[in-house]
Design goal:
It is a single chain. By secondary structure, the chain is mostly helical. It contains three helices and two strands. A hairpin with an 8-residue loop joins β1 and β2. The longest helix is centred in the middle third of the chain and has 15 residues. The protein is globular and about 45 Å long.
């Protein structure tokens, strides 16, 4: 029997980070509540027809492509320090490289 789509997507996310999907994630697992068995990353994967943030990312991507740039969405919450960074998995290395360049050039 074929995998349910969400299981397949969890497996894909796990493999992206060099690990395997946790077959019993959540309260039933004796390993971790994470969706993967990664030793350092706690990965929670959500598969849905739509996510509100993806709509924003799609609009950002369209504008970024016109300027030949990598689309990145950052999110912050009032009263909480720092921010979250969202990019597509295919752009993660390029985004991380840009962060490293910024640090070398005296960025934050």
């Amino acid at each position: 029997m074929a995998d349910k789509t969400w299981k397949s997507r969890e497996r894909q996310a796990a493999e992206f980070f060099g690990t395997r999907r946790n077959p019993l994630s959540g309260g039933n697992s004796r390993h971790s509540r994470s969706d993967t068995l990664h030793e350092s990353l706690f990965i929670e994967h959500k598969h849905s027809v739509r996510h509100a943030i993806i709509n924003l990312w799609d609009k950002t991507k369209a504008m970024a492509l016109k300027e030949n740039k990598i689309p990145v969405v950052t999110l912050s919450v009032k009263g909480r320090p720092g921010f979250w960074v969202m990019c597509h998995s295919s752009d993660l290395t390029a985004v991380a490289n840009q962060r490293e360049l910024a640090k070398k050039d005296g960025g934050f």
